[in-house]
């Protein structure tokens, strides 16, 4: 009976020793560990669409004013030193257009025939003029007093109208303009400036 207890005690001690060596909580498996959440880069902001910008009008985009869309009128006239300076006004009756250069100018008699030579061009800076609807541009016509010329070389005659060809145009505009002019060729009586903005 006493020997049986000794054997039981030995078995119990051996079991405890084995348990202490192999015991303890088992290490958690890799699968049981929480997966490291990958760092999430903040979503890149989508670039905002650039607002559409309408290009400003350029000389190439604006058509040249035609005779059909222009109206001719006579502006102010100044006198001095035996010369007269008359503003020939072109008003735009259509859509946006531009004028650049010198108009062709001559006087007409009552029968519609040209009197004397066309106006010669004065040397001056030439700029493109943009004409919105309803706006005007002008060119200064300078003519000498026909009474100051000898009758034999001038042959003065009363004009009833002035004829104007806008720059680059072959169709003329006519406005009433009673002026005493030289009907002889070569008198050098008329001179014209380039088109400028404003009505003068």
What does this structure look like?
With 200 residues, the chain is mainly beta. It contains 2 helices and 12 strands. The protein has helices at residues 2-22, 151-154; strands at 70-80, 83-92, 97-99, 104-108, 114-115, 120-121, 129-131, 136-144, 156-165, 173-182, 190-192, 196-197. Strands 1, 2, 6, 8, 11 and 12 form a 6-stranded mixed β-sheet that branches. Strands 5-4-9-10 form a 4-stranded antiparallel β-sheet. Strand 4 (104-108) and strand 5 (114-115) form a beta hairpin. The longest helix has 21 residues, at 2-22.
Keywords:
200 residues; mainly beta; 6-stranded mixed beta sheet; 4-stranded antiparallel beta sheet; 12 strands; elongated
Brief summary:
This protein has 200 residues and is mainly β. The chain has helices at 2-22, 151-154, and strands at 70-80, 83-92, 97-99, 104-108, 114-115, 120-121, 129-131, 136-144, 156-165, 173-182, 190-192, 196-197. It contains two helices and twelve strands.
Shape: elongated
Mean pLDDT: 81
Distance between the amino and carboxyl termini:
144 Å
Radius of gyration: 50 Å
Task: Tell me the fraction of residues in β-strands, as a range.
Answer: 35-45%
State the secondary-structure class: mainly beta
User: How much helix is in the residues?
Assistant: 10-25%
Number of helices: 2
Low-confidence stretches: 4-51
Number of strands: 12
Q: How is the biggest beta sheet arranged?
A: 6 strands, mixed
């Amino acid at each position: 009976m006493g020997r049986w207890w000794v054997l039981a005690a030995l078995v119990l001690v051996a079991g405890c020793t084995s348990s202490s060596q192999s015991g303890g909580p088992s290490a958690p498996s890799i699968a049981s560990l929480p997966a490291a959440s990958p760092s999430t880069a903040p979503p890149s902001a989508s670039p905002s669409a650039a607002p559409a910008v309408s290009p400003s009008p350029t000389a190439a985009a604006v058509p040249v004013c035609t005779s059909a869309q222009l109206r001719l009128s006579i502006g102010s006239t100044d006198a001095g030193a035996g010369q007269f300076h008359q503003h020939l006004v072109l008003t735009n009756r259509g859509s946006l257009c531009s004028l650049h250069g010198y108009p062709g100018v001559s006087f007409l008699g009552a029968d519609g025939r040209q009197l004397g030579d066309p106006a010669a061009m004065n040397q001056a800076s030439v700029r493109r003029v943009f004409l919105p609807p309803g706006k005007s541009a002008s060119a200064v016509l300078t003519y000498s007093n026909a009474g100051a010329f000898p009758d034999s070389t001038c042959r003065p005659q009363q004009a009833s109208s002035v004829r104007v060809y806008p720059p680059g145009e072959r169709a003329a505009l006519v406005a009433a303009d009673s002026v005493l002019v030289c009907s002889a060729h070569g008198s050098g009586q008329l001179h014209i400036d380039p088109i400028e903005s404003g009505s003068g």
